[in-house]
Every structure is written in structure tokens, then in C-alpha cells.
Amino acid sequence: MATDWLVDELLFWALESSEGDTTYWMRIQSWVPSTLDASEDAGQRAVSILMGQELVVGKRAITHEVVEFALTPVGVREAGRRFEAVRSRRERLAYAENAILAWVFETVLPSRPVELIDFIGSPAGYFYASKLTAEEVTEAATSLVELKMLTTTGGPLTGVWLAPEGRACVMSGQPVREYMRPQGTQLIQNIHSGGVGAQGLDVHQHSGDQGAGAS
């Protein structure tokens, strides 16, 4: 569920440096990641991932390291989309809900709750290279508690457990809001033999809730 913040940071840097010009070649050594822990190998890994996603093209040295790279037209559009997503409150909170739920599912132990403060410091706490704020995490976690997907020990950034509804959501593979979307209606046919209709059948159609009237 988590986005790879280092890859996204490189993509945003490439968009800013090139100003969307796909003929502008950049050297990987010119990029200075925001974290001091990021090595040159991390930069090579990030640009290789972007190449695999066809968001950039690269020129490799004899050692197979990427020495220069440029955005593709698809990369320019995707970088712009991710940049707009980062600025969207709705998309940030939607990501936070899904990321928190998946992180709790992978982290929590049956014997004790997991602390949400640890989520903020984890890779899952980044949305397209933008770190989620404590306020956003608190708001998203509160929504998950209201949706009965998490239970909490109380208070902001506190311990939480995964509720049965939350586990079911994660196992379904659906985003939180899609999982919670009310089921639509389905078409129910009542066929009466001997009436008017195809092949002598009288067909009446009406809509009803999925699963309703099952016997």
C-alpha cells in the first residue's frame, strides 16, 4: 500500500529540474535526496524503478549504472498527477486510511496494540514523497475507528487493534471507501409459465438489494 517516497522524490525533482522537457537529460549525481541515509545506490535503484515504469529513459555506463536520464511524456503526465494528488486533502486522507489499515494489519500483534506514532516514522507514512502529518494520521485513524475497522485505546496517535471489519477489508483487497460502498441493486426476474413473453413465459423484472429475498 505504501508509495516509495524516494522514487517519488526523484520523479518530482526530475519534473522540477526539466520543467517538463523530455529532451532535457539529468545526471543522477546531481540529485540530492532529502534524507542523509540515501546512498548513491539508492539513487540508482530509484531511477531503475522509474525506468521499469517507463516514466524515464536512461543512458547506462559500461558498469551498467545510469549516468543520465530524462522524463518520458508518460513520466511528465504521471509526475504532474502525483504532484496534484499530494496537494489534494481528499486524496491524502484516502491514502492515509488505506495505508494505516494495511500497516496495522502487517504490524499488530494479538497480545498488544500497535502505536500509531510509529506509523508516522515508517515508509508507509509517506504519500508520494510527502510525509503525512500527525493531524492527517489522527483524522484518518478516527475515521477507521468510526467505520469499525480499528479499535483504539483512546486519544490521538495511540495504540490500535485491527477490528474484524478491518481485517475483512484488507483481505478483500479493496480500498476502504470502495469496501464500504453500499452494494448496488441487481435485476431480479420472476418468470411465470403460461403467460405472455418469450417462449410463452411471462417475465416481470424489478430491482432489489443484492442478496435480499434470498431463500
Could you give the topology of this structure?
Blueprint: H1 5-18, E1 26-27, H2 40-52, E2 56-60, E3 66-71, H3 73-86, H4 89-107, E4 114-115, H5 116-120, E5 126-127, E6 130-131, H6 134-146, E7 150-152, E8 159-162, H7 164-172, H8 176-179, E9 185-193, E10 201-209
Antiparallel strand pairs: 1-3, 2-3, 4-8, 5-6, 7-8, 9-10
Helix pairs in contact: 1-2, 1-3, 4-6
Structure description:
By secondary structure, the protein is α+β, with helices and mostly antiparallel strands. 42% of the residues lie in helices and 20% in strands. It has helices spanning 5-18, 40-52, 73-86, 89-107, 116-120, 134-146, 164-172, 176-179, and strands spanning 26-27, 56-60, 66-71, 114-115, 126-127, 130-131, 150-152, 159-162, 185-193, 201-209. The strands form four sheets. A three-stranded antiparallel sheet has the order 1-3-2. Strand 5 and strand 6 form a beta hairpin. Helix 1 (5-18) crosses helix 2. The longest helix has 19 residues, at 89-107. It starts with a helix and ends in a 6-residue tail after the last strand. Residues 183-215 have low confidence and may be disordered.
